Amino acid sequence: MRQKQSFIKNLDTIVTYIILILVALVFFFPCLWLILASFSKSGTIYSFDGFFPTEYSLDSFRMLFTDTAIYNYPRWFLNTLFIASFSCILSTFLVILTAYTMSRFQFKARKPIMKTTLVLGMFPSFMGMIAVYLLMTQFNLINNHWGLILIYSAGAPMGYLTQKGFFDTIPTSIDEAARIDGANNFTVFRKINLPLSMPIIVYTALTSFTWPWSDFILPKLLLKEKNMYTVAEGLMSLGETEFARFAAGSIFIAVPIVILYFFLVKYMVNGMASGAVKG
Q: What parts of the sequence cross the membrane (predicted)?
């Protein structure tokens, strides 16, 4: 009986690993193809032998940063970094404050606001693109990076529900004990709840950075001059014969996300423990 159970368990483990490996290969193949395509010597997708290039070269990466007369990738990269960084800071600040307020304070409009944001969140964001464009025109924010930052930051608090759910898991008895000791609301938030919330703050910062970093629709709508483009908009403006440069730019744009993730992941793992000690 034990041998039969052990055989079934081992078989289940083997089947699980096979399925996971197959799924991993399905997701890995497009990444591998894009990496190899970025080293294509011809630069165009029409010279590929099946899925892969016939000849390989580093020219596409060299041209990406040196041949900037028409396609100024370094400028686009800096534009995107500027927009994503400031959007990340402002969005994280606004989302965390909104989530904390909705989680910890009781007021008459609390439930109607929650229901309204939940309903509005069901509609795709591009439905309001015409209204956004008209507003940006009235405020003279067309071809202005701060206009994008304003839109990203102003819309971020609508997605506060995940953060609110995290704050709901922190016992309110901790807040009450701090208030008995004379702490005000700001002190409770800054010294008690904020350290305990490091994992959700890091998650919010990552998502607030990646959205403007990879967004294409809003920059395409508001940025009309090539020197103002973001990376996503700039790469889409490349010609058909520049596919290798497109692939190289797509790979390089993933670097900041990877660096930011590895820099912040330790705070997600250790946040609860360190926050409890500080509290």
A: 12-36, 76-97, 118-136, 142-161, 200-223, 243-264
Q: Are residues 154 and 209 in the same domain?
A: yes
Decide: helix, strand or coil at residue 52. strand
Instruction: Report phi then psi at 197, rounded to 5.
Output: -100, 15
Same domain, 171 and 263: yes
pLDDT at 269: 62
Asked if 54 and 31 touch (Cβ cutoff 8 Å), the reply is: no
- Predicted confidence at residue 80, as pLDDT, reads 93
CA-based diameter of the chain, in Å? 77
Same domain for 171 and 251? yes
Residues 41 and 81 in one domain: no
| Alpha-carbon dihedral 219, 221, 227, 229, rounded to 10 degrees | 20
2 in the same domain as 102: no
Long-range contacts of 225-229 (CB under 8 A, 24+ apart): 225/143, 226/72, 227/72, 227/75, 228/79, 228/143, 228/145, 229/75, 229/76, 229/79
Cβ neighbours of residue 242 under 8 Å, at least 6 residues apart? 43, 44, 71
Do residue 34 and residue 163 come from a single domain? no
Examine the domain organization and report whether 43 and 176 are in the same domain: no
The model scores a pTM over 0.70: yes
Domain that holds residue 131: 63-267
CA distances from 31 to 135, 213, 219, 248, 254 (A): 39, 19, 25, 12, 11
Helical H segments across 105-230, by residue range: 110-120, 129-138, 145-155, 161-168, 172-180, 185-187, 194-196, 198-214, 217-222
Q: Assess if residue 278 is contained within a domain.
A: no
At residue 268, the pLDDT reads 66
What pLDDT was estimated at residue 119?
A: 82
pLDDT under 70: residue ranges of the chain: 1-4, 43, 46-50, 268-279
Is 231 within 8 Å of 212 (Cβ atoms)?
Answer: no
